[in-house]
C-alpha cells in the first residue's frame, strides 16, 4: 500500500511572518491526522522559519525549486545543500517554472539527480496544455515528460521520487480533470511509462499525486482512483480548510 501524500504549494504567497502564523494555526490539527504524509512548500524566504515552527510535527517542509549546481556564480538560485537542513521535499518542473522561467526537461532531470544526491524527495511535475489535451496528445506528451525527467536514474532512485500530474489547463482555473480522467492518465501515461523504464514492481512503489483545482470538496473522489496517491494542492493549501482537505484524502 502506498501512503497517501498531500503537499501544499504556496507559490508566491505569504510573507515569512504570515507563513509562520498559518502553520502554527493549522499544524496541530494536521499533526493529529494519521495514515497520511503531509507537506507545505512555502516561498524560499519563509522556509527556515516554517521548518522551525513545524519542528516535532509530522508535517514536512518542501521547497518550490532548486538549482542543480553545488555552488557558484548563479545569482538568485539556491543549492540543494542550502535547502537540506530545512526541507524534506522539493517541487521540480512545475508548469509555471517551465512556462514563465524557461525550464527544460533536461534541467528538471539534473535537478532530480541533485535533490536525490542530498537525500531529499523530488516532487516531479508533469502535465499537458489545453491545446494538447484537446488534440489527443496527452498520453504522448506526458509520457515523454516522464521519460525525460527520469532518464539515467536507477530503479532505486526512481522509487524515491514522487510524481505530480497537473494538467496545465486545470491549475488555478477552477477547472479540474474528472477523477476518471485523471486516474486514467496517471495510470497509463505516468505509471505505465515508469513501469516500462524500471519495471512494474518499482512503478507500483512510486506515489503519484494529482494537481489542478483540488479542494476539500473533490479530494475524496480523486483518492478513490487506484493510481492516485494524493494531491499537489495550490490555492486550497493557503486556507485553514486545508485541514479538511488533508483529512478527506485518507
Key terms:
single chain, 250 residues, alpha/beta, TIM Barrel, eight-stranded parallel sheet, 12 helices, 15% strand
Which helices and strands occur, and which strands form pairs?
Layout: E1 5-9, H1 16-31, E2 37-41, H2 47-54, E3 59-63, H3 80-83, E4 89-92, H4 95-101, H5 105-117, E5 121-126, H6 130-134, H7 138-149, H8 155-159, E6 162-165, H9 179-198, H10 200-203, E7 207-210, H11 219-223, E8 230-233, H12 242-248
Parallel strand pairs: 1-2, 1-8, 2-3, 3-4, 4-5, 5-6, 6-7
Radius of gyration: 17 Å
Number of DSSP-assigned strands = 8
Q: What low-confidence regions span 5 or more consecutive residues with pLDDT below 50?
A: none
Largest sheet: 8 strands, parallel
Give the overall shape, derived from the CA principal axes: globular
Strand content: 5-15%
Q: What's the arrangement of strands in the largest beta sheet?
A: 7-6-5-4-3-2-1-8
Task: Give the CA-CA distance, first to last residue.
Answer: 13 Å
The amount of helix comes to 40-55%
Q: Per CATH, what is the topology? A: TIM Barrel
Mean pLDDT: 96
